[in-house]
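ok new one. same drill as before - structure tokens go in, u give me an amino acid for every spot. 238 of them this time. try not to just spam alanines like last time pls lmao
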């Protein structure tokens, strides 16, 4: 689930820009202090902890700013083949057939093709995150990024976690991989998409059972750029 602080960070960037008539009173040093202060103050209640994880699809669009403000920060990107993500969303939509979702502006009309176009649009739930990730993947701050595929995380979980800890420079510890259940019931209900952030208790791989039409699967089948982009100067992909 996206963190509110990522939304606040983006809005604050806008307020400190030329969009605001008072921007002439801010230089980059002041902007940096204010933006960094937002994140530090947001997590002041856990200031005794040396590492903080903040989850939001927006961060991959903010890599240059984050790298400037927090040079030691890391960005972990969990990736999955795009047709499988579309299929997962469509499954959820059909399960909640009586509740229009905020992902589609609460429009009760439409069909799987319209919903897919909205999801993959530049501002869509998938499209915006996908474009931001791709831009960051080929950008200059690759040393701060790690991509983990759905298959690696669910099939080779312990080995993947070990490599993740190495990337973070943190000491590994044992995880109970049979008890990772999570729900955001109130949040999901408020956006008309019950179950959107529900996580099953045990980590396991589930092969996709496609319910979206084959032409949609084919259309987006080549979107997983990280599968063919392993090269010097690119982020590590597990």
């Amino acid at each position: 689930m996206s963190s509110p602080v990522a939304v606040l960070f983006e809005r604050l960037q806008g307020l400190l820009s030329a969009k605001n008539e008072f921007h002439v009173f801010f230089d980059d040093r002041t902007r940096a202090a204010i933006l960094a202060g937002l994140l530090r103050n947001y997590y002041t209640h856990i200031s005794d902890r040396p590492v903080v994880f903040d989850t939001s699809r927006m961060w991959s669009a903010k890599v240059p700013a984050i790298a400037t403000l927090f040079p030691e920060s890391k960005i972990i990107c969990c990736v999955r083949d795009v047709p499988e993500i579309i299929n997962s969303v469509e499954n959820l939509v059909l399960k909640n057939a009586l509740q229009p979702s905020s992902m589609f502006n609460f429009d009760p009309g439409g069909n799987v093709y319209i919903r897919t176009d909205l999801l993959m649009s530049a501002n869509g739930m998938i499209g915006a995150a996908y474009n931001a990730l791709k831009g960051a993947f080929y950008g200059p701050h690759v040393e701060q990024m790690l991509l983990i595929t759905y298959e690696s995380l669910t099939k080779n979980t312990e080995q993947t976690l070990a490599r993740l800890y190495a990337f973070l420079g943190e000491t590994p510890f044992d995880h109970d991989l049979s008890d990772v259940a999570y729900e955001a019931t109130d949040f999901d209900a408020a956006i008309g998409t019950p179950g959107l952030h529900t996580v099953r208790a045990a980590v396991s791989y589930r092969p996709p059972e496609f319910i979206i039409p084959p032409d949609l699967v084919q259309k987006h089948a080549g979107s997983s750029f990280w599968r063919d982009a392993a090269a010097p100067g690119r982020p590590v992909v597990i």
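Residues 75-237 form one domain. and btw The chain has two domains: 1-55, 75-237.
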